[in-house]
Amino acid sequence: MNLEKPEFSKTDVEILKRETLYQGFFRAEKITLRHKLFRGGWTTPMSREIFLRGEAVGVLLYDAERDLVGLVEQFRVGAMDEPISPWCLEIVAGMVEEGEQPDEVARRELIEEADVSDLELEYICNYLPSPGGSDEKMHLYCATCDLSQTGGIHGLPEEHEDIKVHVLPADAVLAELLQGRFNNAAVLICLLWLQINRPRLRGKID
């Protein structure tokens, strides 16, 4: 297997038809397409629905000097049937608007959701949360900052945001990493990254 260069690219997909199913803050489309096959040739035409969400940004807050992690808690409609709670512990996050760069979104959302502005950003990675049915791309960052005075309730009321900021010892957070309290990919990826990079980040303050 060659991990450096995929066998196929987007030029190996032929879009035959696109239909808008819904147009609101987000968009849903029905796409009729065909694509090349590993065994050779092309598929017959197929239809797929896709949720067009665009790019988003997520930021983990970490205080290396005090070894603290900052997380936000808010209600999520998609988690209404979760046995623990529909209120999820997450990283700070927001959508990339037209003309914005991901790092700009990270800084904007940190102010809106956690009232944090004095920080250093480090890029972690990007990933596709659900490529089987959505085009969303998530950019992840770590923001190193002083969390000693961070907390409280934040968010924009006009956007129905009611966001509680938690500042917790890193040891306690990482001890619960895979125990079910963290149930979304962005926070899990960031905390796993922190588990690996925590010694390096703490080493910067020595």
Overall description:
By secondary structure, this protein is of the alpha+beta class. It has two domains: 10-52, no CATH class; 55-203, Nucleoside Triphosphate Pyrophosphohydrolase, CATH 3.90.79. 18% of the residues lie in helices and 39% in strands. The protein has three helices and eleven strands; from the N terminus they run βββββββαββββαα. It has helices at residues 102-114, 170-175, 185-203; strands at residues 13-23, 27-35, 46-52, 55-63, 68-75, 87-90, 92-95, 119-127, 137-145, 152-154, 163-169. Strands 4, 5, 6, 7, 8, 9, 10 and 11 form an eight-stranded mixed sheet that branches. The protein has a three-stranded antiparallel sheet with strand order 1-2-3, with no helix packed on it. It is globular.
Tell me the CATH architecture of the largest domain.
Answer: Alpha-Beta Complex
Tally of structural domains = 2
Radius of gyration: 20 Å
Largest sheet: 8 strands, mixed
Shape: globular
* Count of individual beta strands: 11
Under CATH at level 1, the class of the largest domain stands as Alpha Beta
CATH topology of the largest domain: Nucleoside Triphosphate Pyrophosphohydrolase
Helix- and strand-based class? alpha+beta
Q: Averaging pLDDT over every residue, what do you get?
A: 94
The proportion of residues in beta strands is: 35-45%
Topology pattern, helix = H, strand = E:
EEEEEEEHEEEEHH
Number of alpha- plus pi-helical segments: 3
Question: End-to-end span in angstroms?
Answer: 43 Å
CATH H level of the largest domain: which superfamily? Nucleoside Triphosphate Pyrophosphohydrolase
What ranges have pLDDT less than 50 throughout 5 or more consecutive residues? none
Helix content: 10-25%
